[in-house]
Amino acid sequence: MTPEDLNARFLMVGYQRRDGQPGLTDRNRPPMGRKGIGKLSLFSIADSVQIETKKAGIPSAFQMRLNDIREKIREGGGTGTYVPELMSIAGIEFEHGTRITLADLHRRQTTNTTRALRKRVARRFSILGPAYDFRVFIDGGEVVPADRGYYDKLQYLWTYGDSDDVRSLCTSTEHDEDRTDMARNTGITVSGWLGTVAESKQLKDEDGDNLNRIAIFMRGKMAQENMLDDFSERGVYATYLIGELRFDGLDTYDGGETILDDDAATSSRQRIVEDDPRYQQLRRFLGAELKHIQNQ
User: Do 31 and 84 touch, CB atoms closer than 8 A?
Assistant: First the structure.
């Protein structure tokens, strides 16, 4: 980002990126989010947020501190102007891009919490790694898809779309079926995978996460943690199930009045509105696939 981008867009609460800059990002990715407040969520886990960015040869670096922001609010009686603290640009070694560093985390970090954090970050995003130019590091170690911690547990696998990256991580798979054509025939554009493990206890995560779930991703980010709960009538086979499905059809809005669509996410941003017709389309597709898996 240039200094103008920072002031007019990034630091503006509620900036509508899709209206102001419709289309893909400079990294050729569809933008995440719709409310323009995601930047504020960083302060829910860290007291210090450092931004280093460079565009068109112009570097910028600054730091925002939660305590300083709160002080400005107190001084102004509930309102006020906060000016971030400038940082040295000497550490910006990249030619184009942005690095965000979270420091002074609210919880005391230990080896166990760091390991659990790596898992949860890896499970939250489907666009990790150099291929997407979106990289996350925790204490200097890069978070990679293998950190999700379940690919090596899969015994049977059903895939949708280009899934070579998933197959390369599934070291114990005995059965692999490409279901891409089935999805295409039903008129839905979905990618990802569904799988089963050999023993249901393998889905009891040591860090407390429930792995017996089918997560739904939208524009690279988890949109719903578990869609499997939508299917109340299911057999014992379902206790062996896990999956990740990417369905960008839940979010097609990219600016402009003619293609404006309703926000499919609930206000909590953790689930999809159940009566949304796009969600119902996904639900019908998944129901048919679960029946196929049950029969097999």
Answer: no
